[in-house]
Amino acid sequence: MTESEGKCEKMDKQKKGRNLLAFTGTAALLAIAVNLALTAIKYRKEKNAKTKGTPSCSKVLVNLSASEILKLADQIIAKSNEVHNSVASVPLDKVTCTNVISPLAELQAMQFPLIQSCVFPKLVSTREDVRKASAEAERRIDTHLDVCSKREDVYLVVKAFAVRGDWMNAEVKRFVQILVRDFERNGLNLTASKREELLRLRAQIDELSFRYIQNLNDDSTFLLFNEAELLGLPTEFLKGLDKSENGKLKISLRSHHVAAVLEFCKVGTTRRMVSGAYGNRCGEVNLTILECLVQQRHKYARLLGYSCYAEYAVDVRMAKTPTKVFEFLEGISTSLTDLAMEELEMLKNLKKKEEGEFPFGIEDLLYYVKRVEEQSYDLDFGEIKQYLPINLVLSGIFKIVQDLFGLKFEEIAGAEVWHCDVRVFSVLDLGSSELLGYCYLDLFSREGKFGHTCVMALQNSALTISGAQQIPVALLISQYQKDADSTPGLLRFSEVVSLFHEFGHVVQQICNRASFARFSGLRVDPDFVEIPAKLLENWCYESFSLKLISGFHQDITKPIKDDICKSIKRWMTSFSALKLKQEILYCLFDQIIHSADNIDIQELFKHLHAKVMLGLPVLEGTNPASCFPSSVIGYEAACYSRIWSEVFAADIFASKFCNNVSNQHAGMQFRNKVLAPGGAKDSIGMLSDFLGREPSIEAYIENKAKYIL
């Protein structure tokens, strides 16, 4: 067994008088592990996966056919049932780490890369039948995992072990506590009648959420304008608009149309009409749904023993309590008030100069921010793009990650991939040359591919039953464009920021060394998962790294000029206080409606808007249920989390890297103290250990105030 002692096997063996049941559990566990490994080997042989350079320590299977994906999904489910049935059969007075906890941990570790092998093709495969099979496999596996998460027989056995408190080490204790917590958040500690009520409420919440989103998706409302009323919008945008019978241009209430109007249109009445219509989509229908949803969520949380839904949602996050969230949001909002007032006055003055005495409204914010930026910064992002060829940006990121975190990326020639554009890298420790993991890069746009940029964990770190460390595998997906001759093209600056962000997730996945797959890579505290990615974004705005990743596409020896680097750094925080105030408004609204009963949602939104947005009133007719869909599904009571991540990432950067962006000592400490444990340790505790104090908002506020115009 390795030094981590993350599994229970060795310590159980050392116990005297070990019974036959424990031995049988170990034997069964080994058999399951062998079966899973043989499944992977079988598929590799069938797909001729012994291609030169194929990642040898990865159980991830690529290029499975549609039938093979569905067959593998069924085998995964069958083997999962075997393990859960075996664990459930252990008498409550015979529970040990070996016959209860180790089988569940080993199952997660061994099956995760096989599950991902079934799931990731739906995002990247060039074959429609494979994408459909992958989606169906994911549906089957998700349904099975949902059933497993509600198995009372398994819960009782795990709970019996937890009650004994026979911990081998802190990581085992945390793993068991989270197993119990997850079961109990599904109501398995409730009576049968209350559990039925919980399921009924969950079904109602899901149905209401679906109706709400469907209403927005089905909304086909559009507004008609002539070209004069759309003055300022790009010509190419106008050319792409549909026309009515009388020749007027149609502006739909889809976000890309609305954003373009609010950012570029010079006509204030047009901006006001579009913003008002967008803020009142689905009118009273969705407001009624939102009010009902909030009530049902509160009932759901109270059945589980929480006082409100916000308490239920935040309990498993770094913030821990709604009170902490309120303190966090209000602390930032108050600290930014003076700076936001300066920004608002600047915008009001510019509107008065350009449009006369028309009052400044929330619908003017994006347009006048852009106007001030155009006047104040010598930045032509079209020109900057000419200095950002993707291969040069990538090589610069590799160098930055190597210098900071001691990670060396080496491309594997001839590795098996699902498309010729895909590249595969071994990730090695720079000092010891130890293999730490693998990374797949699937960067370029093609038909049928997932349309957004993201990182997907394909294999998680884990300590297996044999004592071997399973290494992580990451997949980075994006939709960058190639040039007309199919050569890698140039990146917009926003795409560079996105690429740095996603590489933060790659580093996070690769550097994890948790003993349990449950704590590995991206499976960490939801409030923490974005911090490494937001941290790495900071390097996009530093002169040192901007020069490292840039070079004029016709002569890469010519990087971005110093004055442009400085302007980019200043532009980063342009009007950030006012923009953040608007985001805080929605976060507070979200937290309040999920913290108390009988709230008049419309009146609350009006009150908060004026208070947080420095007296700017809500645009007449705005319906908070239309402009804030994330309160309905996905981020309810947790919208604050994006700001939380950004604030703590700013604290880390300011404290450890601001004066030395190549500080490898700090980078290696971050890798070892924060990234390596992953979810195995308390997130606040890890950050506090790294920083030498608890994280704070001060560095974030100071950075915002530093570059005021």
Structure in words:
The chain is α+β, with helices and mostly antiparallel strands and 709 residues long. Helix content is 57%, strand content 7%. The protein is built from 29 helices and 9 strands. The chain has helices at residues 9-14, 20-46, 66-88, 97-119, 121-124, 128-148, 152-164, 170-185, 192-218, 235-239, 255-264, 268-278, 283-303, 309-314, 322-355, 365-376, 381-385, 390-405, 493-511, 531-537, 543-549, 562-572, 576-593, 601-612, 624-627, 641-656, 664-675, 683-691, 698-706; strands at residues 222-225, 249-252, 407-411, 423-429, 435-444, 454-459, 462-463, 469-470, 473-480. Strands 3-4-5-9-6 form a 5-stranded mixed sheet, sandwiched between helices. Strands 1-2 form a two-stranded antiparallel ribbon. It has a two-stranded antiparallel sheet with strand order 7-8. A hairpin with a 5-residue loop joins strand 7 and strand 8 (469-470). Helix 18 (390-405) packs parallel to helix 19 (493-511), helix 26 (641-656) packs across helix 29 (698-706) and helix 27 runs antiparallel to helix 28 (683-691). It is globular.
* Overall spatial form: globular
Structural class estimated from helices and strands:
alpha+beta
Strand elements, count: 9
* First-residue to last-residue Cα separation: 59 Å
Strand order of the largest sheet: 3-4-5-9-6
Number of helices: 29
Weakly predicted, low-confidence segments: 1-34, 36-41, 43-52
Mean pLDDT over the full residue set: 90
Indicate the percent of residues in helices. Answer: 55-70%
Taken as a percent bin, the fraction of beta residues is 5-15%
- Rg, Cα atoms, Å: 27 Å
Characterize the largest beta sheet: strand count, sense, and whether it forms a barrel.
5 strands, mixed
